[in-house]
Amino acid sequence: MRVLDASADQRFDTFARLARKLFGVPIASITLADQEPQRFRSRMGQANSATRRDIAFCGRAVPSDDVFVVEDAHADRGFLDHSPLAGMTAIRFYAELPIRAPSGRCIGTFRLMDPAPRPFADEDRELLRVLGRLAEQQLESLVLATTDELTGIPNRRGFFQLATQGLALANREDEGSAVLMFDLDGFKRINDRLGHDAGDKALVAFARCLFMSNRESDVIGRLGGDEFCALLPDTDIAGTRAFMQRLVDEVARVNTSGTIPVPLRFSAGMAVADPELNESLDRLLARADARMYEYKRQRRYRPAAVQNRLSMAV
Description:
The chain is of the alpha+beta class. The protein has helices at 10-23, 58-61, 77-80, 83-86, 122-145, 156-172, 187-194, 196-213, 237-255, 281-298; strands at 27-33, 38-44, 50-51, 68-70, 93-100, 106-114, 177-184, 219-224, 227-232, 266-273. The chain folds into two domains: 10-144, Beta-Lactamase (2-Layer Sandwich); 156-310, Reverse transcriptase/Diguanylate cyclase domain (Alpha-Beta Plaits). The longest helix is centred in the middle third of the chain and has 24 residues, at 122-145.
């Protein structure tokens, strides 16, 4: 869902702060569980921003489908016998509710903790469920606000949020990066001749090709219309050409599959990010965009059969 690396969101802080006040607990947090570690999307009364899942209470609690409560961890043999948790004597009360993605998959927890034992009545459980549903709705709206509804990849806002962070990290690590701009050739003619449904299918197909071509660390997005973009952190010219070859191969596969009304053709431009220059993402996208349109003008006189193989201006 691409939200683990987003900065702390005050809207989630509101839920954690409200939970502390309503339940009278010193610690409340909303966590999202990656492979390793789990990240605190919002935390009140807790200093660390992530923990290993094997030493966390919710490592045991996440399988639950509903509110999970340990009123006194010292009296719960299941926790005392679990060696990673045995030393966590500072926490005795623990309550959590699974947080689910719009798909229904459990991706984290809404947690309450206290160094003192305490009862947790049915009314408390229902109140935690209400707060959990509100947090899920907030998470869903956050994802929708940063995701392109048609293609399912990040929209302009989502791309800038993720790529700005990725570029800053690469610059701090003194790693080169590449920024690419993409434009579907003849897209207006597709809409004019075959209708917007055909145009939508072309956009979805190209977004899928980008998705299938990128690495886990890459960021792709749709800026609007038929304009797409990508950030390839820690990438040199050779790595960028390898990405482009994967993309060309994927587009060729789609073009011969018979699943789209017309073959996809695209142009691309690239800008290389020098960590020492610390250029902004806007500046890099503008340079990549200028190279793309320069190349688009040049390739008008080249055979269509070789267009996608030549579709990157460096």
